[in-house]
Amino acid sequence: MLQDKHFFKVLTAIGIPVAIQHVITSSLNLVDVVMIGQINAVSITAVGLANQLFFVFSLLLFGINSGGAIFVAQFWGRRDLENIHKSLGVALLLSVAGGLIFTVISVLFPEWFMRLLSNDEEAIRLGVEYLRIVGLSYLATAVSITLSSASRSVGDARLPMRAGILSLGVNTGLNAVLIFGLLGFPAMGVRGAALATLLARSMECLILTGTIFTSLHPLRAKWRQYFRFSRVFARRILQKSFPVMANEFLWAIGMTLYVAAYARMGTQAYAAVQISQTVEKLFFVAAMGIGHAAAVMIGNLLGENRREEAIRYSRYFNLLTIFFGIVLAVFLLVTAPAIARFFNVDDQVRADAVKVMAVFAFFLTIKMCNALQVIGTLRGGGDTTYSLMMEISSVYLVGVPMAFLATTYWQLPIYVVVALVHLEEVTKAIVGFRRLFSNKWASNIIEGM
Fold first, then answer.
1. Residue 345 has pLDDT above 90, yes or no
2. Contact predicate 250/60, CB 8 Å
3. For residue 104, how many other CB atoms are within 10 A of its CB?
4. d(Cα 381, Cα 227) in Å, to the nearest integer?
5. Is the pTM of this model over 0.70?
6. Mean pLDDT calculated for residue range 158-182
7. Are 51 and 421 in contact (CB under 8 A)?
8. How far is CA 53 from each of CA 58, 201, 249, 253, rounded to the nearest angstrom?
9. DSSP 78-96
10. CB 68 within 8 A of CB 92
């Protein structure tokens, strides 16, 4: 692996920008939580619960576009621009449709959604204020995620990264001004955080579309070329994409059920989890970067009918993931107490947050390997149905039952509950590595198209 210069060249070109972009994407919500965290624990809880709707939506988009990206990556392996544009068109239609549905829920039915997750009236009131504004950004987000995913699949990971950096800068600056009322603006609290996020995500969408359609980017085409696909073409993509969409959507619902279980332990317990999960996302970006690079590189190789090389690269990616997982886990353990002090919460919440972060650190390497198999190796090889069954069975047969048993019947401390929920990752790892070493996942799915 260390002697394979091409592997590291492509990994650097794709994996590092993707990791940076995921740091930025995670930071958009982190900035909201940290700045809102200077107000009180109820505000942290309100924004955290409200963002569960975006979490479900973003994972649905991730599923749609991971499915489309499998085809874009393999078509790019043979430089088939016409079919790349058609694949992008299918993904855009599905993403925008999803954006419309979630916008309606966020803007018209925010209280209904908040009451699914909490019975704290103040948290519900603040969450409704946040959702009604931030929901207006969902259509722009749908377009941005679709274009970013396709761009990475044709080897251009820098454009989404640059757009994300500018978006983060705008979000951070506007958060400070609108949440706390700087520069003569009124202090808007959670509504200010929502407005800042709306403006930042809209700007990111404009940068991506503007750059692609005013340059010689591989994704550039006339609008009608994106939608000239036949029913047979769309059906073939959907056959591979639907398991990915179902995977991400059902997984997101499972994560939301975890949130519902945590939230019923009280505002203080959920605030500890929200702080910890926000931090964990930043430590998890290495897995996302390696996973997306794996999906693109393995997909490109399989599209060129270089199956043995694709299998060899899958082993390299697992070695890298284990190495980074151990390093990041140790770093998280060491820095957890200092990180917790950034939040304006009472000592009990801070102490619980440190313990939950320790649990995250313990399972981080296993969790990163699982993410690599799901979003990288298996999807890059088109093995989307197995990926769906592996992940959803672990969540709903292990994780969700543990969450509700531990919170409702056993009434364990929050950090013990989180540890029991993470047993789903152990189950998933056993199943995932068996599939990896069978090599049954590696196939060319565009042959004949």
1. no
2. no
3. 12
4. 25
5. yes
6. 86
7. no
8. 9, 16, 11, 10
9. TT-HHHHHHHHHHHHHHHH
10. no
